[in-house]
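Reopening this one. Same input as before:
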Amino acid sequence: MSSILPGSKEFETPVYGTVFARRTDVVHRLRAGDRLILVPDPPGTDDPNVWVHAPGGDVIGHLSPDVNAWLVPWMLEGGRCGAVVAHVAGDDVASYKRLIITVRCRA
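Same output, byte for byte:
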């Protein structure tokens, strides 16, 4: 279970799914401080995610199910979030720990 409390204004979290569909190539281009785009799945999606995109739109991965459970509905109700890269590790680190981002939310 996530230690990130629902409604948190700022938090760090890993990005999941970075090893699929050549997303690792996108991760290799990222540096600490790079801005990222967060996009929730549309309403009515089963098990919706918040998707993380690099500048230019390339998909990097998604947030954890625990975070998605509260963040997707909040964003669909008009909440806005931005993110920046906090840390990028090498390929020797488990994929679910390789990219850490800082998410900032505002109503």
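So the earlier flakiness isn't reproducible anymore. For the record, Residues 32-101 form one domain.
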